[in-house]
Amino acid sequence: MSEPDITAQRSMWNAWNRVREEQQDEVPLRQAAIVCGWLDDLGRTDLDILDVGCGAGWLEQSISRYGQVTATDLADEVLERARLRSPEVTFVAGDFLTLPLPEGSFDVVVSLEVLSHVADQPAFLAKCADLLRPGGTLMLATQNRPVLERLNDVPPPRAGQLRRWVDAHELRALLTPRFVVDELFSVTLKSRRRHPIRALTSVRVDRVVRAFDRGALDRLRRTLERRGYGWTLMARARVSTKA
């Protein structure tokens, strides 16, 4: 089956992001909280940050306090509206792999749930590495393939949508040619099938446990996330200085 062309992908992502301009669910909000925590750890407010695949630009208001943000996406119509909401951000519409961004000009590259939607994942990560300054950091989130396949019923890809989920081992293998991986873990328990994890994420369980030991439930959830049951894989990696 042939890959959808860029025009079909652009149309799909304009439609997809149009309904996500106003509200985000727990998955992207958890990703954003972790990215902001990583940025806090850098202790700087003068960073040059690139957000690859920014969608509706919802993350930019959170990360702009750490420095100057450039944000890219195929969804050109959505970016026009994002510019009005965040005029301090430089939005660049287009195919990331062909955009003429200056190499070695960013301290941080952020990319949330984009890797699985690109045709050439090694080339995507190689360009992220090329755009970073020596010692620069990649902060990446992507879907956790085993969890989405085994614990969730995800609709098939839409017309114009690429989908190549990875597991933790595959993600590490993709990163290691150009990056030193500092952290790689899963977050956010989420299940749409009859499974114990679905029970652990239900409001009903929260209400029952709250009266007894909410801390125990939170510890159990964190343990399962560390064991790879989270919907999202989060990776923080430094660009390698090896030739």
Could you please describe the fold and organization of this structure?
The chain is α/β, with parallel strands linked by helices. It has one domain (6-189, 231-239): Vaccinia Virus protein VP39 (Rossmann fold). It is built from 10 helices and 7 strands. The chain has helices at residues 6-18, 26-42, 60-63, 76-85, 121-131, 145-151, 168-175, 196-200, 203-210, 214-229; strands at residues 47-52, 67-73, 90-93, 106-112, 132-143, 179-189, 230-239. A 7-stranded mixed beta sheet has the order 3-2-1-4-5-7-6, sandwiched between helices. Strand 1 (47-52), helix 3 (60-63) and strand 2 (67-73) form a beta-alpha-beta unit. The model has no long low-confidence stretch (mean pLDDT 90).
Structure summary:
With 243 residues, this protein is α/β, with parallel strands linked by helices. It has helices spanning 6-18, 26-42, 60-63, 76-85, 121-131, 145-151, 168-175, 196-200, 203-210, 214-229; strands at residues 47-52, 67-73, 90-93, 106-112, 132-143, 179-189, 230-239. The protein is built from ten helices and seven strands.
